Amino acid sequence: MIPLKDDVPSRRYPIVNTILLISNILVFLWEISLPQRVLENIIFKYGVIPYRFFNIALLPHGILTLFTSMFLHGGWSHVIGNMLYLYIFGDNVEDAMGHFRYLIFYLLSGILAGITQVFFSSNPYIPAIGASGAIAGVLGAYMRYFPLARVLTITFFIFFIDFIYIPAFLYIGLWFLLQVSSGLFSLLIDISGGIAWWAHIGGFVFGFILAKYFRRRKYWFYYYLG
Fold first, then answer.
1. Which of these, 63, 112, 165, 217, is most buried using a 10 Å CB contact count?
2. Are 168 and 105 a contacting pair, CB within 8 Å?
3. What transmembrane ranges does the database entry give (predicted)?
4. What tens-digit pLDDT sequence spans the chain (226 residues)?
């Protein structure tokens, strides 16, 4: 299932979410302009590599990569998929939190997601990059704030394609179930398939918890409480 839009109206322009979208896209365009060897060096230098966090000499740089890794992506499908989710779900979360709180929440979710990946990674020498941990935090907040929202999705069944509205709690719940099952499977067979499942899990869980404390007090969820 691919999300296309939700039915929650934003009351304020999502300034921070727009800046995050543009920043990620610009960084990716810069990435693909680099020679392959230079790009690989960038990923290894600024991606989250777990072993750095267990070496006192490398720890300071490891901490830095918890931030820098959020703005690097590994390909077109990687960045487009992440930005699609951020575009659909981020504006309403920013609306509920306010601009500055949303920025702090986003970055904190990404950092905590990276830390989760460090402790559960099946290979301590492979770099993890991408905004998906932070965006998983956004999904966690959306789940807390707008569980009864409806998400328009494209569904595929053999040769048939359909467009249906799915409740947010069901769509995001199924997404999270996939992350957990894949994360546990990656531990059992010691392989991740190139996806930082545990960053997604950690980002979502921490995002869901932190969302309680980041909501603007004056924000009223009239849209789904009536």
1. 112
2. no
3. 12-30, 100-119, 125-142, 154-178, 184-211
4. 899 999 998 889 999 999 999 999 999 999 999 999 999 999 999 999 999 999 999 999 999 999 999 999 999 999 999 999 999 999 999 999 999 999 999 999 999 999 999 999 888 899 999 999 999 999 999 999 999 999 999 988 878 899 999 999 999 999 999 999 999 988 887 665 578 999 999 999 999 999 999 998 776 554 443 3
